[in-house]
Amino acid sequence: MVGFSLRQPEGGQSHFSCIEFTAPVAFSSTYCTLTEHILSNILPIVLGVMILRPHWSLMVMFFCSLEIGTLSTHSGYNLPFNSNALQHDWHHFFYTENYGPTGLLDSFHGSNKVFSAWLGELERREGLKGDDLGKVAREKIANGDVGVSAPSMESPEN
User: What domain range is 117 assigned to?
Assistant: First the structure.
């Protein structure tokens, strides 16, 4: 199921269609502008298929795993194979951090500084780790009780 928004998002931001849904809703995961869908969702996959030319069964398995991963990340559930649901919930809460699917490039580019600092402070204050920390963090995000202000939309400072 793919939803497209052909309207231009306010402020020229191209990713705001999907994050209009602030609560985790799995079927909202593919709701985006046509431009974002082509550049972010279709083009990387098609280029990989054109370059590698895999067997059709491998392509089907890959496409299904991508869709399942996208749906589970947006579901609001912390499934065992999906360790980044909390990061993505934060992305939908603040809109300005945690853009990547794994968090690796967010760490590299510094687009998760507030999230990392907040999670570290929560870990220190609550004395929790792992799944227990994730559960408390998800509850605080769901209740809007994060205790920090939204990062600015400007590029992160180095």
Answer: 81-158
Q: Judge if 4 and 48 occupy the same domain.
A: yes
**29-50 per-position pLDDT tens digit:** 777 888 888 888 889 889 989 9
Cα(82)–Cα(68) distance, integer angstroms: 10
Same domain? 56 vs 92: no
> 33: how many CB neighbours lie within 10 A of its CB?
21
Q: Are 9 and 17 in contact (CB under 8 A)?
A: yes
Q: Which two tokens stand for residue 45?
A: 């996959």
Determine if the pTM surpasses 0.70: no
H helix intervals, 74-129: 85-94, 104-109, 113-126
Split into its structural domains, the chain has a count of 2
